[in-house]
Amino acid sequence: MKITVRAAVEADLGALLGLYGELNPEDLPLSQAVAEGVWADISRQRGRTVLVAEVEGVVAGTVDCVVMPNLTRGGRAILFVENVVVAGRFQRRGVGRRLMEAAVRLGESAGCYKVQLLAADDEYVHSFYEACGFKALAQGFRRYVE
Asked: Angle at Cα 140 formed by Cα 123 and Cα 104, nearest 5°?
């Protein structure tokens, strides 16, 4: 199975929305107009790259990467990873690993000193990230804004 990872383009929007629907099935779908407006904002954001993995021309997974400039660590940036999802029919076939490798390479090419993410409290998810070379070194906190 050939897996190709590339930066997402506007034509991938429908596939991305489908993947995000698998990631967060409780979310109401965005209207096309709202989705297009959000995509326009994402595509203009400096340091933001949404990667997609394709298998035989089908978008099989995605990861959203944001390079954040930083005034510590010698001015080296941090790459934050969010919205990692692989379509159910492509899971456990190397797609997620290839996406995470591409995210790390993106961080390296941007001069980042680390790649950071928060993971769901799920043993399988934790073992996946550990297999990709990530270590659970800190406790994450979040506060949702209503």
From this structure: 75
